[in-house]
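COURSE: Structural Biology Practicum
ASSIGNMENT: Worksheet 4, Part C
STUDENT ID: 0417
INSTRUCTIONS: Below are two proteins. For each, the amino acid sequence is given first, followed by its structure token string. Answer the questions at the end about the second protein only.

PROTEIN I
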Amino acid sequence: MIRFEDIYENVKRHHAGADLEVLRKAYIFSAVEHKGQTRASGEPYLVHPLEVAAILAELRMDPACVAVGLLHDVLEDTLTDADKIKEHFGPDVLHIVEGVTKISKIPFSSSEERQAENFRKLLLAMVDDVRVIIVKLADRLHNMRTLQYLPEERRTRIARETMDIYAPLAGRLGMSKIKNELEDLSFQYLEPESYRELMQRVEERRTRAIEFIEKIKTTVAEKLQGAGLEASLEGRIKRLYSIHQKLRKQRIDIDQVYDFVALRIVVPTIPDCYAALGVLHNLWRPVPGRIKDFIAMPRPNGYRSLHTSVISDEGHPFEVQIRTREMHRVAEEGIAAHWKYKEGRSGPDKDDQAFAWMRQLLEWQQEVKD
């Protein structure tokens, strides 16, 4: 079970000098209001708000937002009321709690033709403060992590809603880490047989893939160091749902997935990104048509990176992503990283960034309608 003190220390580490008393107050308030309540797992209900707050702390959200993670269910699931929350925590925290509660009560349609309406409802709920949807995504993520304790019918309904609404929304907000986990968890419950079969096929290749990743990491690290480039390297095996989509869409075998394994290179500056790309292309032959410059042409959700695929000495293709540290934070956390970056500046700056994301989402809504 996650400990409150761990959450507190995490927030303190990323928000030096901030008033963190709101966190202790929120923890005590939530513990009192949820006393005696249990989850479907049999655990004390307090475990859930603690886990949600921990996710928000990992995203480096501000103390008020993490406090809302602790309080997000008190209006819906306890006897407390809005006046009491406002009295103890002020109008800002109350506003976000009410926004999250409002989303929880939205009746989403599962039919494709109603998707635009679903997104419109979410946009209206978050238009005043994007932290509303960030808290809701953290809430949904922990609920998906514990979905096995619910009856099958509810598992399927929640997984479908997550795959159709919350995972795409996280993607549009640039929150790829949350999007990816939501997709894999939903896939597990929506297509259990396909999930198990693909999991087995990936596991059969995992040991060989990890050995391959370690080998190329060593080679690339030496070459980058020789070129005078400071870099951190991380390898990964492609996510299950992403593999599933590629196999289904392209009608190929798993051994034909170019980016089954990938290498991520994180460097200090943009010029270093292009220098690292040159080192890679001198080391191995690039795959034609697989070089993408998302630094010069960022994705609509703000994602920036250089992508390339190369052929190893053994003839195995693999993908490489090259980005700066700031690009990596944005790639993982999306709008949460921007919120964190703007925190402490003037209010209008923060609002400008939030509304830039809102414009992107409104354009998405129009796409869905069309």
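PROTEIN II
(use this one for the questions)
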Amino acid sequence: MALVRWNPFQEIETLQRDMNDLFEGLNTRRMNGDRVGLSFVPAAELHDTAEAIELKLEVPGLQAEDLDIQVTAEAVSISGERKSETKSEKDGVTRTEFRYGSFRRVIPLPARVQNTNVKAEYKDGILHLTLPKAEEEKNRIVKVNVG
């Protein structure tokens, strides 16, 4: 039986190679150039005020008509599709790191809202929703006992 010197860094390099192969497989492209696998998920920012909940979503590269917004008393569902531009380049290769494809994001709300009075504005790639709180949420008084 021969003794083989163990190199712990070789194990780490093997693991790193395997992880790189895994993530490269997720970023494969279809024939038309669209990415398959990793979809894009828009970043969200939520601000809770006394009168309303302000929700902003980062959705650059879309038109307002590409967004589908559905609001219940407890949650907001936003879906859409960011379509890739079809370009043909005769000289050279085009590379993109943009995310394309469909997305759907459901955001639970910290308070009940009046889903019939929602205001939406889409400007410069930011979707801004103003969700007025339901009357029972605005007028709710909570008694706190010290003890």
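ANSWER KEY EXCERPT:
Q1: Confidence is low (pLDDT under 50) at residues 30-37.
Q2: The two ends are 73 Å apart (CA to CA).
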